[in-house]
Specification:
With about 280 residues, the protein is an alpha/beta fold. The protein has one domain: Rossmann fold (3-Layer(aba) Sandwich), CATH 3.40.50. The protein has eleven helices and eleven strands. It has helices at about 40-45, 75-90, 100-115, 140-145, 155-165, 175-180, 200-210, 215, 240-245, 265, 270-280, and strands spanning about 5-10, 15-20, 25-30, 55-60, 95-100, 120-125, 150-155, 185, 195, 225-230, 250-255. Strands 1-2-4-3-5-6-10-11 form an eight-stranded mixed beta sheet, sandwiched between helices. A three-stranded antiparallel beta sheet has the order 7-9-8. Helix 1 links the parallel strand 3 (about 25-30) and strand 4 (about 55-60). Helix 4 runs antiparallel to helix 7 and helix 5 crosses helix 6 (about 175-180). The longest helix has 14 residues, at about 75-90. The model has no long low-confidence stretch (mean pLDDT about 95).
Length: about 280
């Protein structure tokens, strides 16, 4: 069982934070990817909990944190959510974090708002794409695909069976897939379950990624950032991960071609060991 607490966002709405395990004095913050939620990382957290007290947030519109709107046009709110969580976990600043995809970007956005909140970020393929004036955001393939996702299943078991039978979730470990579904759906009166992060909301988050100006702001971020990337693929975050690390004044690049963008759910033990090594290498 995970312990769950409700924080208050700047607009007065709730922000859900989960304790994923560990009794260490130092907290470690996990910041999740688009369409997922904090407890997707329970299996990975199990390998980190011997040293840290591991916490994970559900960003607005994901997991148990509701969204006031059906869509988003900016990622600024995710940066605010990360900052709210950080100030709770480390009131005096200096929080260490692992951020996956959007989650890495959220921590970087939080740092721009308050440079004291975090002391180190291990970012797995953070989303900070370089500007592209020719990019058609409305027809972004990953967003269009999200809009076509099936929103409701007869049961959580039916959802797990469906996802396990095909890519991309079919390569997840059984534990990661189970946690994604069981903690990422809401129950309906007829016994069916629906995705907490709706297809429409998820698609809007993907589109908003290409409207933010994080790439341009990277040189202003003096946070220690270790950028992990899997195999480099066209039209994937791995394709610009090295560029993100290069633009960060205190960035470093750590490629591993044995993984893809879903590494934390496919090889959670391997990713956890990498995270632990990177955090330990800069510990005082």
């Amino acid at each position: 069982m995970t312990a769950t607490i409700s924080l208050t966002r700047p607009d007065g709405s709730p922000l859900i934070l989960h304790h994923l395990g560990g009794s260490g004095e130092e907290p470690l913050f996990i910041s999740h990817a688009t369409g997922f939620h904090g407890r997707c990382y329970l299996e990975m957290a199990a390998h980190l909990s011997s040293r840290w007290s591991v916490w994970a947030v559900d960003y607005s519109g994901h997991g148990e944190t509701p969204s006031a709107d059906d869509s988003v046009t900016t990622w600024e709110s995710f940066g605010e959510d990360a900052l709210t969580a950080a100030r709770h976990l480390a009131p005096h600043g200096g929080l260490r974090a692992f951020g996956h995809s959007m989650g890495g970007a959220a921590v970087l956005l939080a740092h721009l708002k308050d440079p004291s909140a975090f002391s180190q970020l291990v970012a797995f393929e953070p989303i900070a794409p370089p500007p592209n004036d020719d990019f058609d955001v409305e027809h972004l393939p990953i967003a269009v695909g999200a809009e076509r996702r099936r929103p409701t299943f007869d049961s959580a078991e039916a959802a797990i069976a469906n996802y396990a039978s095909k890519p991309p979730l079919g390569i997840f470990t059984p534990r990661s897939l189970s946690d994604y579904v069981n903690y990422g759906v809401t129950s309906n009166d007829d016994g069916s379950v629906s995705l907490s992060c709706t297809p429409t909301f998820e698609a809007s988050v993907f589109r908003a990624a290409h409207r933010n100006k994080l790439w341009e702001s990277l040189p202003q971020i003096d946070l220690a950032v270790n950028v992990i990337a899997g195999v480099v693929e066209e039209h994937q975050p791995s394709n610009f991960a090295a560029g993100v690390a290069e633009r960060l004044p205190n960035g470093s690049y750590h490629p591993d071609e044995s993984m893809n963008h879903f590494g934390p759910f496919v090889v959670p033990n391997q990713v956890a060991h990498t995270v632990e090594d990177l955090l330990s290498s800069t510990s005082s």
